Amino acid sequence: MIIRKLHLWVLGVVCAFVLTSGVAGAEMKRYEIDAEHSAIGFSIPHMTVSNVRGQFTDVSGFVELDPDSKHVKTVEATIKAATINTLHEKRDSHLRSPDFLDVEKYPTMTYKLKSYRKTGDTFTAMGDFTLHGVTKEVTLIGRFIGVTKDPGGNSRAGFTASGRINRQEFGIQFNKTLDNGGMIVGDEVTILLDVECVRAKTSAP
Fold first, then answer.
1. Is the CB of residue 123 less than 8 Å from the CB of residue 144?
2. What CATH code would you report for 27-199?
3. Phi and psi torsions of 54, nearest 5°
4. Is this structure's pTM higher than 0.85?
5. Which helix (H) or strand (E) holds 195?
6. How many Cβ atoms from other residues are within 10 Å of residue 12's Cβ?
7. How far is Cα 13 from Cα 168, in angstroms, rounded to an integer?
8. Domain boundaries in the chain?
C-alpha cells in the first residue's frame, strides 16, 4: 500500500511538472485585435419581455499567446464607449448620456487578463473590467477557435466568449418602473465576444 501511494505521488509530481513546463516553455507571440473582423456585443433585457442587442465598433488591444499550445498569457483591450450601436440612433444617444455610459466623462472601457485556464479548446478567463469608472473582476467563458494563415501569409487567431455583469455594480443605475412592477431596462448585461487577432509584425533590426 505504501509503495502504491508513493508511486501515485511520484506520478502526480511528474504530471504537474510536465504541465507546468509546457506552459513555461511556451513561445508567446503577440496578436493584435483586428477590429474590422471582431464583434464586441452585448444583450440586455428590455421591458421584461425582450432583449436589446448592440455592439461597440471601436476596439483595440492585443493578446499574447502560444499558437501551438493555445495557451494565452496576456489580454489587454480598450473599447471606445461612444461607438455603441444598437441600430437606433435616439436610443444610442441616450445610452451615451450621463444616464448610462456618460461617454464624455468615461470615454473608454478596458479589460486586462488576470488568469487563464483552458480545457481543450475551452477556456475560462478572469480579468479586471473597467466600465463607467469602476473596476470589477469579470469572468469570460469561451472557446479558442484556432489559428490559421490568411491569403497574405499573416497568422490569425480567433476566440469566442461570453460573460455577465450587473450594470448597477458599475454605477449605471438609471431606470423606470413599469405599471406591472418590472423595470424598463434590466440590470444583468450579457457580454458576447467574437474576436479575431492578427500576428503583430516585427520591425526589421
1. yes
2. 2.40.128.110
3. -160, 180
4. no
5. strand 188-199
6. 10
7. 45
8. 27-199
Length of the chain: 205
**Per-residue pLDDT tens digits for 41-77:** 999 998 888 999 999 999 999 999 999 988 999 999 9
Burial degree of 73 (CB within 10 A; 0-12, 13-18, 19+) = middle
Q: 3-state SS of 65-123?
A: EECCCCEEEEEEEEEEHHHEECCCHHHHHHHHCCCCCCCCCCCEEEEEEEEEEEECCEE
Q: Which residue matches cell numbers 473582423?
A: 37
Sign of the C-alpha dihedral computed for residues 72, 78, 81 and 82 taken in this order? negative
d(CA 32, CA 177): 43
Query: Between vectors from CA 81 to CA 76 and to CA 82, what angle results, nearest 5°?
Result: 140
Question: Cell digits for 104?
Answer: 464624455
Side chain identity, residue 117:
R
